[in-house]
């Protein structure tokens, strides 16, 4: 967890700053250079995530959560994330979703991670043609059928036999040409196995590849309103225009000066007013002196009083004073389930994982601000 925090914190500054600059420069040579830097930064983040995730899986520390989630939402979030790469290579994207897909219980973050690894791999090794994803439900067997295909370079039988092994790519020249650690497919197959399935591949050299797996599913009995995922690793960096939420005041509790700057500029870009504090106790004091904040973005690792303890103190004061709770969103470098649970137990309403993506920030603000508005000012019939 400490390694994750130490690596993600500077990456948050790099990716966040580039995100803001790309909104100022929409064309020309500067934009091309920024896009190149942004892509390289995201690749570095992906490599870091792969290494940390593989280490957790390899040591048996990967735990899956079980919550209701929307399969179509996961698919569309994953494909939105990859659209800049797909469009940059001039590829077409096919999404084939069963109209009868129900909500299911499972780990949406890890299911989405499998899709991202498979689709990202497909895009990486395809220079022309298409990539695609199909998801269907086998109601009789209570299984989910998932396929990801491409028209890329393909694999020989010998390459197929070891493609799921860690630190493996088709050949050394492939690694030099396309980059990567060779961990993506190893992580995908291990996650699929943790979820009760088996990842397989059909391929031929020069004819593309098709990866598929089936997962046992526990169907959510009562459909619920879908809530957008807020994991930064699953959000597109494009299309983050002004927020649909009217201008509000947001409190940012963050001790890192670079992250303070990035969050402030992002919130201002979305049309909001921002107050910044650098410690957890300062956040508690700020909410004692004024209650007109629409939302609090709370970094979890701060000096004097960390974000968890600050949130507990804020919630205790709200209970004792009979105040309406202000939404508090954890800003964390930790993608681990127990860290998310810790945030929830402290009284936080949601979490955003660093590096922060602008669309994710916009969505989480809109969701919680609109939800609070509906609770505080319900519409009369």
Description of the structure:
The protein has about 375 residues and is an alpha/beta fold. The chain folds into two domains: about 70-225, Heat Shock Protein 90 (2-Layer Sandwich); about 230-375, Rossmann fold (3-Layer(aba) Sandwich), CATH 3.40.50. Helices cover about 45% and strands about 20% of the residues. The chain has helices spanning about 1-25, 30-60, 70-90, 110-125, 155-160, 170-180, 185-195, 255-270, 280-290, 305-320, 335-345, 360-375, and strands spanning about 65-70, 90-95, 105, 130-140, 145-150, 200-205, 210-215, 220, 250-255, 275, 295-300, 330, 350-355. The strands form three sheets. Strands 2-4-5-7-6 form a five-stranded mixed sheet, with helices on one face. Strands 10-9-11-12-13 form a five-stranded parallel sheet, with helices on both faces. The chain has a three-stranded antiparallel sheet with strand order 1-3-8. α8 links the parallel β9 and β10. α3 (about 70-90) packs parallel to α4 (about 110-125) and α9 packs parallel to α10 (about 305-320). The protein is globular. The chain starts with a helix and ends in a 5-residue tail after the last helix. Mean pLDDT is about 85; it is low at about 170-180 and about 220-240.
Write the layout of secondary structure elements.
Blueprint: H1 2-24, H2 28-58, E1 67-69, H3 71-88, E2 92-97, E3 104-106, H4 108-124, E4 130-138, E5 143-150, H5 157-162, H6 172-178, H7 184-194, E6 200-203, E7 209-216, E8 218-219, E9 249-253, H8 257-269, E10 273-277, H9 280-289, E11 295-299, H10 307-320, E12 328-332, H11 337-346, E13 350-353, H12 358-376
Parallel strand pairs: 2-4, 9-10, 9-11, 11-12, 12-13
Antiparallel strand pairs: 1-3, 3-8, 4-5, 5-7, 6-7
Helix pairs in contact: 1-2, 1-8, 2-7, 3-4, 4-7, 9-10
